[in-house]
Write a structure and sequence with these properties.
With 261 residues, the protein is an alpha/beta fold. The chain is 41% helix and 17% strand. The protein contains ten helices and ten strands.
Amino acid sequence: GTNGKGSVSHLLASVIMEQGYSVGLFTSPHFVDFRERIQVNGRFISKKFIADFVSTYKSMLDAHHFSFFEMSAGLAFAYFAEKNVDIAVIETGLGGRLDATNIICPMVSVITNIGYDHTHILGDTLTKIATEKAGIIKRNTPIVIGETNPETEVVFKAQAQQLHSTIVFADKQLRVKKSWVNYSRCLKTLEIESKVSKYVLKTPLLGDYQNKNACTVLQTLEVLKNQNIRIRKQAIRQGFRNVYQNTLLRGRFQVIMRKPL
């Protein structure tokens, strides 16, 4: 999606970690250290693994002129295989259809939202952009869409139907009944309800846009539960609350210090 990929990825990883699974997380970009992009259970990839990977594959990487992102994705997949993770959460880089991450066969695909980003590459209309992002929808694989938009809904439904994939729109299944922020504690409280469940969640992700991301995450977890991935409500609560500690996410309206603010 245009916004929300990072937050949704980190929240999913955090919840699944709280359930006790071993989780690989691949995201971009990084703030300070390249290793932020690749982590397992909240620990960055080791410098030695990166150095060994580059040393082993340097001639092949040079010969094929791989991009920085393509090399990073290959490195992440190699690392997750080495660590034998139970579940990997993989954030798409740009678009979807031709993105380096799109070689995987996921348990579920997620599209957060669609906006006018990278129009020189993805197209100059929402329909064209949605078509590129719909490229991550796989045959017989469920797809979760975060936000419903009349222009893009048609594209996603058509692709899902063609590939016999179950499609669900998170904002049609869940709604944020109420939300408020305790600025002294830097915590947002969300009251979210669906037709079958109610959630009261606390998270340090304070932005208003995180309300939509939270619904996307909860719907994705429901899909995973249908694939025999055990996710308790307690893990969801702890995952949302501890997302900073669990996945080292930074920079989402985060208070670094108070004096000075």
